[in-house]
C-alpha cells in the first residue's frame, strides 16, 4: 500500500499531536497501541505546555499535513482545533481533524461514536471519511481586561460551571474527572451566591437574571459526562443554551441526577434557548470556561460558524 505523504515531499501527510500529560500521562501509551496498527508513516509531535498544540498544528498544516490527530483530552482537542485557524481563517480547507481521546474528561468525543478498539481506531485515522462540523467563535475578556477570540468545538459556560472548571483544573483528578467535577461542584456551591447577568440571543429581548450557570453548546456533554445541552447537534448551525437560574445548595444537590440523565430541561428553573449568537455581560466578575479550560470572564459574545471544519468520521 502506498504511504500517505505530502505531495512533493517525504514527510508524512498525517501528524499526531500528543499531550503527554493527558489522561494522567496515559495518552502517549494509548497512541503507541494505535500506532502499532497503522500502515502509513506518521509524524509524531509532543506538546510541552499551554498553547503548544495550537502552534504545532498550525506549523504542520502549513507544511502540508492534511490529517492532524489530537491525542489527549478536551483541552488538547480545543488547542488543536484553534491551530487550524490563523487570522480568523482556515489555514487549509483540505486539512481534517482526527481524535484519539485520552483525557480525564473527553466529553466532546461522546457525540462522535469513535471506536475503542485500537485496530479500528487506526483504520479510522488513515481512512475515515470527512465530516463537516460547526464551531463556536467565542469572544471573551481575559482577566486583565483584554478582549480576545477563541474557537470552541464543544461547550463554553459561565457562572458556577466555570468556577468548578477552574477548581478541577487545579486538582490532581486521581479518581477521574467525573468524581473530581462532582466534588468541585459541591465545594463551590457551598460558597456560591449566584451571578447577576444580562443575556441576549439573536434579536430576542435581553434576559436579566441571577444564574447558577449558563452552558452554551455545540456539543452535549460537559464536566466528565454531565448532559448540559441534551438537544445539541454538532452540525445544525445552531447554538444550544442551557440557562440554570439560581439554585440554593439543597435544591442543587437534590437535582444533581438531572445533570447526568439528559432531563435537565424538566426542571422549572432551567431555561432552554436555541440561537445563532449570544451575548452576556455582568456588573460583577463572572468567570467563563471554554471546552473545560477556565480562560477569562464576561462580557462574552458567541456566534456559530456552520460546518466550519472537517473531522475524520467513522
User: Radius of gyration in whole Å, from Cα?
Assistant: 19 Å
How many angstroms separate the termini? 21 Å
| Count of strand segments | 18
How much strand?
A: 35-45%
3D architecture notes:
This protein is of the alpha+beta class. The protein has 2 domains: 14-127, Rossmann fold, CATH 3.40.50.10330; 136-307, Sandwich (Tumour Suppressor Smad4). The chain contains 8 helices and 18 strands. It has helices spanning 22-25, 27-35, 52-62, 74-83, 118-127, 160-169, 177-189, 249-254; strands at 14-18, 43-46, 67-72, 85-86, 89-90, 96-101, 129-141, 147-152, 155-159, 195-201, 207-217, 221-222, 226-227, 239-245, 270-275, 277-281, 287-290, 293-313. The strands form 3 sheets. It has a 6-stranded antiparallel β-barrel with strand order 9-11-10-16-18-17. A hairpin with a 5-residue loop joins strand 10 and strand 11. Helix 3 (52-62) crosses helix 4 and helix 6 crosses helix 7. The protein starts with 13 loop residues before the first strand and ends with a strand. The relative contact order is 0.16.
Descriptive key words:
314 residues; alpha+beta; Rossmann fold; Tumour Suppressor Smad4; 2 domains; two-stranded antiparallel ribbon; 36% strand; globular
Amino acid at each position: 500500500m502506498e504511504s500517505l505523504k505530502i505531495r512533493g515531499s517525504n514527510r508524512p501527510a498525517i501528524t499526531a499531536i500528543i499531550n503527554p500529560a493527558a489522561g494522567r500521562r496515559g495518552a502517549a501509551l494509548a497512541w503507541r497501541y494505535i500506532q502499532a496498527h497503522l500502515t502509513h508513516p506518521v509524524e509524531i509531535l509532543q506538546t510541552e505546555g499551554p498553547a503548544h498544540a495550537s502552534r504545532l498544528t498550525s506549523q504542520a498544516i502549513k507544511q502540508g499535513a492534511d490529517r492532524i490527530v489530537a491525542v489527549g483530552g478536551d483541552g488538547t482537542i480545543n488547542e488543536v482545533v484553534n491551530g487550524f485557524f490563523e487570522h480568523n481563517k482556515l489555514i487549509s480547507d483540505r486539512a481534517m481533524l482526527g481524535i484519539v481521546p485520552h483525557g480525564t474528561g473527553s466529553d466532546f468525543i461522546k457525540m462522535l461514536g469513535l471506536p475503542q478498539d485500537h485496530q479500528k481506531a487506526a483504520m479510522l485515522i488513515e481512512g475515515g471519511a470527512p465530516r463537516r462540523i460547526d464551531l463556536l467563535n467565542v469572544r471573551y475578556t481575559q482577566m486583565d481586561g483584554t478582549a480576545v477570540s477563541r474557537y470552541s468545538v464543544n461547550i463554553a459556560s459561565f457562572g458556577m460551571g466555570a468556577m468548578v472548571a477552574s477548581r478541577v483544573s487545579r486538582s490532581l483528578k486521581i479518581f477521574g474527572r467525573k468524581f473530581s467535577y462532582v466534588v468541585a461542584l459541591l465545594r463551590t456551591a457551598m460558597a456560591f451566591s449566584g451571578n447577576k447577568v444580562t443575556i441576549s440571543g439573536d434579536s430576542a429581548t435581553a434576559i436579566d437574571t441571577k444564574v447558577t450557570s449558563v452552558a452554551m453548546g455545540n456539543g452535549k456533554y460537559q464536566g466528565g459526562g454531565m448532559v448540559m445541552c441534551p438537544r445539541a447537534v454538532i452540525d445544525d448551525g445552531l447554538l444550544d443554551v442551557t440557562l440554570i437560574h439560581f439554585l440554593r445548595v439543597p435544591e442543587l444537590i437534590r437535582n444533581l441526577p438531572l445533570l447526568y440523565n439528559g432531563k435537565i430541561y424538566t426542571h422549572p428553573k432551567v431555561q432552554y434557548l436555541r440561537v445563532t449568537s449570544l451575548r452576556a455581560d455582568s456588573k460583577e466578575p463572572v468567570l467563563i470556561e471554554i471546552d473545560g479550560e477556565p480562560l477569562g470572564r464576561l462580557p462574552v459574545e458567541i456566534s456559530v460558524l456552520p460546518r466550519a471544519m472537517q473531522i475524520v468520521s467513522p
